[in-house]
C-alpha cells in the first residue's frame, strides 16, 4: 500500500479500492506463489493506458469552457475494455482509476468476456440546456473516438450520463467514423439498444439481495428498504422492490433526501422518474407533492447521513462512493438493517464495511451486487454482433441467471478461502482469479 500511495499520490479513492481488494487477495497469494512471482498484483493495479484530454465547448451565451476528459483502459486480459462514462464535477484521475479498477473484477464476475475501463469528465450537466449538453458530448467524442471501438473499448453510462448523453456521444462517433457499430451500450431501442439495459443495475442489485436473503430462508416481501440516490440505479431498484412486495421509504439527491413512511408506490415512482429524467428537478419536490413525506436537506458538515438512520431491514445505496461511513453503519446496525446490497460503486467506507462484516450481516459489495448493469451491456454487445434483439423476457431471464451465478460464485469462493458468508472476499477473489489466470496465459504484457 505504501508503494501504491507513493506512485499514485492524491488519489484517495483509488487507494481505498486497492486496499479493499488487497486485503482479500492476501488469502490467494498465500496459495499461489506463482502469482506473486509474476507480479500480478503490481500489474493489475497499473492501468494499461490512461488517456487525458482537453474538452473545449461553447455555452448558449457564446462563452467558452474547458473541461478535462479521461478514459482509463485498465485491463483487457479477458475482453475489450468495458465501463461507463461519468460526467460530474467531482471527476478526477483518482476517482476514475478506482472505478476502472473495480470494473475489472466486476466484469470478470459477470461470466461475460469483458475487460475493465472507465472514463468521464469534470463536466456538470446540472443546469445546462440540451443544446449545451449536446455540444459538450460532441466535443468529448471528438477526442475519445480515436481510443474506442466495438472490439477495443465500449463505454456506457454512469453518473450524469444517461440515455440523452449516450445518444449525442454515439451520434458523433458514427459521424466521425462513418460506421454503425456497437461502440457504446445503453443505446436507444430503435438504434441497437437492449431492452432491460436501463433497468439492469437496479434490478440486479435487488436480485442479488433476494439471493442473499434466500441463504437465510427469507424473502424481500414485506421488508422495509432504505434507498439512496434518485437516478437510474435508484429508480429501478425501487421499481423491482415494489414488484417483489417490499416497501422502499427513502430516496435522495445531492441536495437532500425524502422519507416516506407509507412507502414509494408506482404512482410516486412515476413522479420521480418524470422529475429526474424529463424535468431534471430536485427530490425536495417529492415532499411538496406527496403529504406524509418529509424532506431533509443534506448537511455537508454533518458526520453522518440521516437517510441511513431509519428503522429498516434492507439498504440499497445507489448514489455515489463513500455515502455510508462508520457512523452510518453503526446507525444502520442499531436500526436492525441486516441486508446491504450496493447499487452504487464503493458506497461504503472501509470502516463501514468492517462493521457490516463483523456483525455478520448480508453485505453484497458493489462489484457483485451492481454487476447486472454491465452484464446487460455485455448482452447488448452480443445482440449487436449478431444483429438481433432479444425479448424483454429473454434479457430479464439472462440477467436474473447472471446475478444468481455471481451470488453462487461469491458464496462458494468465500467458503473455499475460509471466510464463509464474506461476499467481499468472495467477489474480490473470484474476479481476480479469472483475470489473473488469463494474464498468466498471455505472458508478460
Ligand atoms: P445517475 O446520475 O442516474 O444518478 C445518481 C444519483 O446519485 C442522483 O440522484 C444524484 O443526485 C446522486 N448523487 C450523485 N453524486 C452525489 C453526491 N456526491 N452526493 C449525493 N448524491 C449524489 O447515476 P446512476 O444511477 O447511473 O449511478 C449511481 C451509482 O451507481 C454510481 O455510483 C454509479 O457508479 C453506480 N453504477 C451505475 C451503473 C449504471 O448502469 N448506471 C452500473 C453500476 C454502478 P443529483 O441528481 O443531485 O446529482
Report on the structure:
- The chain is an alpha/beta fold and 445 residues long.
- It folds into two domains: 2-26 and 43-181, Leucine Dehydrogenase, chain A, domain 1 (Rossmann fold, 3-Layer(aba) Sandwich), CATH 3.40.50.10860; 200-364, NAD(P)-binding Rossmann-like Domain (Rossmann fold, 3-Layer(aba) Sandwich), CATH 3.40.50.
- 48% of the residues lie in helices and 15% in strands.
- The chain contains 17 helices and 13 strands.
- It has helices at residues 2-7, 12-31, 33-37, 40-44, 93-109, 130-144, 163-177, 197-214, 232-243, 266-278, 284-289, 326-334, 350-359, 366-369, 372-386, 392-416, 423-441, and strands at 49-58, 64-75, 81-87, 116-121, 153-156, 224-227, 247-248, 250-253, 256-260, 293-297, 314-316, 339-341, 362-364.
- The strands form three sheets. A five-stranded mixed β-sheet has the order 1-2-4-3-5, with helices on both faces.
- The mean pLDDT is 97.
- NADPH dihydro-nicotinamide-adenine-dinucleotide phosphate binds at residues 157-160, 162, 201, 229-233, 253-255, 318-320, 343-345, 370, 373.
Quickly count the domains.
Answer: 2
CATH topology of the largest domain: Rossmann fold
- The averaged pLDDT comes out at 97
Using only C-alpha atoms, the radius of gyration works out to 21 Å
CATH superfamily of the largest domain: NAD(P)-binding Rossmann-like Domain
> What's the helix-strand series?
HHHHEEEHEHEHHEHEEEHHEEHEHEHHHH
Distance between the termini: 23 Å
How much helicity do the residues have?
40-55%
Q: Indicate the low-confidence ranges by residue numbers.
A: none
CATH architecture of the largest domain: 3-Layer(aba) Sandwich
Tell me the structural class. Answer: alpha/beta
Largest sheet geometry: 5 strands, mixed
**What is the total tally of β strands?**
13
Bound molecules: NADPH dihydro-nicotinamide-adenine-dinucleotide phosphate
Strand content: 15-25%
Strand order of the largest sheet: 1-2-4-3-5
Q: Please tally the helical runs, counting DSSP H or I stretches of 4 or more residues.
A: 17
Q: What is the top-level CATH class of the largest domain? A: Alpha Beta
**Rough outline:** globular
